[in-house]
UniProtKB/TrEMBL annotation:
GO terms for molecular function: fructose 1,6-bisphosphate 1-phosphatase activity; metal ion binding. Its cofactor is Mg(2+). It catalyses: beta-D-fructose 1,6-bisphosphate + H2O = beta-D-fructose 6-phosphate + phosphate. Signal peptide: none annotated. GO terms for biological process: fructose 1,6-bisphosphate metabolic process; fructose 6-phosphate metabolic process; fructose metabolic process; gluconeogenesis; sucrose biosynthetic process. This is Fructose-1,6-bisphosphatase, cytosolic. Keywords: Carbohydrate metabolism, Cytoplasm, Hydrolase, Magnesium, Metal-binding. The lineage of its organism: Eukaryota, Sar, Stramenopiles, Ochrophyta, Pelagophyceae. It comes from Pelagomonas calceolata.
Length: 332
C-alpha cells in the first residue's frame, strides 16, 4: 500500500491468526491472550494515576511481595484464558498450584505464563512484560492435568511475550512458523502486524552480553571465563533486569543473555515453564540458541529439558549462535 497509518493494507493480529492457524480454538485462545495483554498494558500505563503502585500485602510462590499490578495482571490473564473455553490447564508464576479447568469449560490447550515478569521494575517505570507458552493436552477427552505441562519444551505449540515498553509489542511464534512482531496501536486498540520472519542479525549482531554481573563471584568457572573474555573482546554490557526487555533486545540487536546457576541458586533463578522454555522456542525460531549449560556431564539444549515441577528453575544461556557457542565451548 501507499504506507501511512490509514492505509487499507492494515494487517491485524486477528488476521494473522485466522489466515495462519486454521485452528478456531487456538485462534480464540490467542485473541483472549492479546486482550489480556492490552488490559495489562493499560493497567501498567495508568498505574501511577490509578494509584496501583505499591504492595498488595500478599506473597507469591517465590515468596516475593506481590504488588497490586502483579495481582491485577494475573487475574486479567486467568479470567481471559478461562473465558476462552480453549484451556484445560493454567500454570501461572503467581499461583502455587496449577488451575485445572472443569470439563464443561475446558478446551485442548495448556498455558504456562508469567503475567508480569520483571515486576520489580514497575514502580520506577522500567519496561516489564508477559511471557507465555502453550501446549496441547496429551490425551484428548480426558481432564487436563499437570502431566500435560511437565514434558520436554520442544512439545510447545506456541510461545510469545508482550513487552510493556515505549510501545507495547507482542512477539509470537507458532510451531513451524517464523517469529512475528505486532505493535499495539492504542488509538485502534489493535495489535498491528509490523514484522514477519524476525531473525537474529546474521553473524551474531552487536557484541553485547547481558547478565547480572553482581553474581560474578558465585558463577562456575566456565561462565566467569566467558564473561571475562567478552570484556577483552570489547563487548558492551546491557542489562535491564526484565527478561522480556533483555531477550527482545538480544533477538533484535544480537549478542547473548545469561542467567547462570550460581552457588546461591544451584538451578539459577529463572523458571522453566514460563520464562526459559517460551524464550528458548522464540530464540530458536529466530535462528538463535538456548541452553541450560551443563546437565549430567554434557551441554544441554534447553528445550530438551523435562521439568518435574511447575515452578522449577533452570540456568539460561540464550542468544546468537556465535555467542552461545562461545560460552558453551568453555565447558569442554
Ligand atoms: P536479577 C525479574 O524479577 C526476573 O524474573 C527476570 O525478568 C529478570 O531477567 C531476572 O529476574 C532479574 O534477576 O537477579 O538480575 O534481579
Amino acid at each position: 500500500g501507499s504506507g501511512g497509518d490509514l492505509d487499507s493494507e492494515f494487517h491485524s493480529l486477528t488476521e494473522y491468526l485466522m489466515t495462519t492457524l486454521k485452528d478456531q480454538e487456538l485462534t480464540v485462545l490467542m485473541s483472549q491472550m492479546a486482550l489480556a495483554c492490552k488490559a495489562t498494558s493499560r493497567a501498567c500505563a495508568k498505574a501511577g494515576i490509578a494509584n496501583l503502585f505499591g504492595m498488595a500485602g500478599d506473597q507469591n510462590s517465590s515468596g516475593d511481595d506481590q504488588k497490586k499490578l502483579d495481582v491485577l495482571s494475573n487475574d486479567i490473564f486467568v479470567n481471559a484464558l478461562l473465558k476462552s473455553g480453549s484451556c484445560c490447564v493454567l500454570v501461572s508464576e503467581e499461583n502455587e498450584e496449577p488451575i485445572i479447568v472443569p470439563e464443561k469449560d475446558a478446551g485442548r490447550f495448556c498455558v504456562c505464563f508469567d503475567p508480569l515478569d520483571g515486576s520489580s521494575n514497575i514502580d520506577c517505570n522500567v519496561s516489564t512484560g508477559t511471557i507465555f507458552a502453550v501446549y496441547e493436552k496429551k490425551t484428548p477427552g480426558k481432564l487436563g492435568s499437570v502431566a500435560d505441562v511437565l514434558r520436554v519444551g520442544s512439545d510447545i505449540v506456541a510461545a510469545g511475550y508482550c513487552m510493556y515498553g515505549a510501545a507495547t509489542e507482542l512477539v509470537l511464534c507458532f510451531k513451524g512458523q517464523s517469529v512475528q512482531r505486532f505493535a499495539l496501536d492504542p488509538s485502534l486498540g489493535e495489535f498491528v502486524h509490523t514484522h514477519s520472519n524476525v531473525t537474529f542479525p546474521s553473524g551474531g549482531g552487536k557484541k553485547i552480553y547481558s547478565c547480572n554481573e553482581g553474581n560474578f563471584p558465585y558463577w562456575d568457572q566456565p561462565i566467569k571465563d566467558a564473561v571475562t573474555e567478552f570484556k577483552a573482546k570489547k563487548y558492551a554490557l546491557r542489562y535491564v533486569g526484565s527478561m522480556v526487555s533483555d531477550v527482545h533486545r538480544t533477538i533484535l540487536y544480537g549478542g547473548v543473555f545469561v542467567y547462570p546457576a550460581d552457588s546461591k541458586s544451584p538451578k539459577g533463578k529463572l523458571r522453566v515453564l514460563y520464562e526459559g522454555f517460551p524464550m528458548a522456542l522464540l530464540v530458536e525460531c529466530a535462528g538463535g540458541k538456548a541452553s541450560t549449560g551443563m546437565f549430567n556431564g554434557s551441554v544441554q539444549r534447553m528445550l530438551d529439558l523435562e521439568p518435574t515441577h511447575v515452578h522449577e528453575r533452570c540456568p539460561v544461556i540464550l542468544g546468537s549462535p556465535r555467542d552461545v557457542d562461545f560460552i558453551l565451548s568453555k565447558y569442554n
